[in-house]
Design goal:
The complex is a heterodimer of chains A (111) and B (124). By secondary structure, chain A is mainly β. Chain A has strands at residues 9-12, 18-23, 34-39, 46-49, 63-68, 71-76, 85-93, 99-102, 106-110. Chain B is built from one helix and eleven strands, in the order ββββββαβββββ. The chains are: A mainly beta (111), B mainly beta (124).
């Protein structure tokens, strides 16, 4: 049971726009930045979004992040076959002595 | 180019110990926090532990704290290396352990680059 809640799956057709949600609480998303990671099959995760909506250099602007209250979203526009991967949200949680929490991951299928 | 190379994984019996290492290059190691994140087979990501740039702030997931602290994270800035000493290992510790570079000096800043992982299998 993950602290952050994501839908287990999402899908879209090439060119479409899809969004993946991430729900948390006041101790994590509500008070800290959200990051998003993409994990292609058999590879290590890759940072897509940090500080809610910032893209590292090299990440296409088709990927965008947003946050409102205790929820966050990742949007992918102009969907491409190579976007088929697992996507994870993450945030620092202030409870106890503090720790990082991840969502359970969303498997994105490009139909 | 940032490179993180983990080593030290393997097969260990329940109750045993193992030490993971991570050799870092391509960035100023002692400017950044470092983390260990694991992924059990077919499962999602789980943060295990993190250590600030100066080792002044350290955090652990509840799952690895235990009564005596089963896992211990450390770093050697002179050797650009990160370590994870694991003891009292359990079957549920079986996972691919990733070394990850922090976005900033402190644990709260998150991670950007990840290594390819070291596989730890706990089984009799």
């Amino acid at each position: 049971q993950s602290v952050l809640t994501q839908p287990p799956s999402a899908s879209g057709t090439p060119g479409q726009r899809v969004t993946i949600s991430c729900s948390g609480s006041s101790s994590n998303i509500g008070s800290n930045y959200v990051s998003w990671y993409q994990q292609l099959p058999g590879t290590a995760p890759k940072l897509l979004i940090y500080r809610n909506n910032q893209r590292p250099s090299g990440v296409p602007d088709r990927f965008s992040g947003s946050k409102s209250g205790t929820s966050a979203s990742l949007a992918i526009s102009g969907l491409r076959s190579e976007d088929e991967a697992d996507y994870y949200c993450a945030a620092w949680d202030d409870s106890l002595s503090g720790y990082w929490v991840f969502g359970g991951g969303t498997k994105l299928t490009v139909l | 180019e940032v490179q993180l190379v983990e080593s030290g994984g393997g097969l260990v019996q329940p109750g045993g110990s193992l030490r993971l290492s991570c050799a870092a290059s391509g960035f100023i190691f002692d400017d950044y926090a470092m983390h260990w994140v694991r992924q059990a087979p077919g499962k999602g990501l789980e943060w295990v532990s993190g250590i600030s740039w100066n080792s002044g702030s350290i955090g652990y997931a509840d799952s690895v704290k235990g009564r005596k602290g089963r896992f211990t994270i450390s770093r050697d800035n002179a050797k650009n290396s990160l370590y994870l000493q694991m003891s009292s290992l359990r079957a549920e510790d079986t996972a691919l352990y990733y070394c990850a570079k922090g976005l900033g000096q402190w644990l709260v800043s998150g991670v950007d680059y990840w290594g390819q992982g070291a596989l730890v299998t706990v089984s009799s």
